[in-house]
Design a protein that fits this description.
Arc Repressor Mutant, subunit A; Rna Polymerase Sigma Factor, Chain: A; sigma factor; mainly alpha; sigma factor activity; RNA_pol_sigma70_r4_t2; DNA-binding
């Protein structure tokens, strides 16, 4: 059920939804300053796209989708920027030949950070491909760790519908990721 368009002003959306947008972005990005950047981007997007909002989904769902997409885009840009910044290996050393950054421990296998990044990328790609009807519930319940009752309230669903969609989303994700984690046949 969507709100009448005359009630949808950028000011009202900011007042009513900015804390939730910020909270979701902070959970996804792990940084308050990045979450503030995403909040600003989302609000600018809302100002630009509000006239195009048709009300096919609830405003909360639309804002959630815009926030998740903006946060993922922010994360990709940040990873790309960090990769460019680390492109010169000699910058890791001072003129005296001492490391300028702390050296990571050798307790983990050297390929672990790469494998972890690859797993995270596979998971993000799978979530992006997931049908929206399942994705919204999965992100709110499993990433934001909201209780089912709150997820139901945000998405305007019943609690049993949230549980069903969450179960289906987890199954969908398991099926999507299984080929990447199965042991090769001998």
């Amino acid at each position: 059920m969507s709100e009448p368009s005359e009630l949808l002003t950028p000011e009202r959306i900011f007042r009513d939804h900015a804390p939730r947008i910020f909270h979701l972005a902070r959970r996804m990005l792990g940084s308050e300053s990045d979450a503030e950047d995403v909040l600003q981007e989302v609000l600018l997007t809302v100002i630009r796209k509000l006239k195009d909002f048709r009300g096919d989904s609830s405003l909360t769902t639309w804002l959630h989708r815009v926030t998740v997409n903006t946060a993922l885009m922010h994360r990709r840009k940040q990873a790309s920027r960090e990769l460019r910044e680390r492109s010169d290996p000699m910058e890791q050393f001072s003129d005296e030949g001492i490391h300028t950054q702390p050296i990571h421990g050798w307790a983990n296998a050297p390929d672990q950070p790469l494998l972890q990044a690859e797993r995270r990328s596979l998971l993000e790609q799978a979530i992006t491909r997931m049908p929206e009807i399942l994705r919204d519930v999965l992100i709110l319940a499993d990433i934001e760790e909201l209780p089912n009752a709150e997820v139901a309230d945000v998405l305007q669903l019943s609690v049993p519908a949230v549980k069903t969609r969450l179960h289906r989303a987890r199954q969908w994700l398991r099926n999507e990721l299984a080929p990447h984690f199965e042991e090769p046949s001998r």
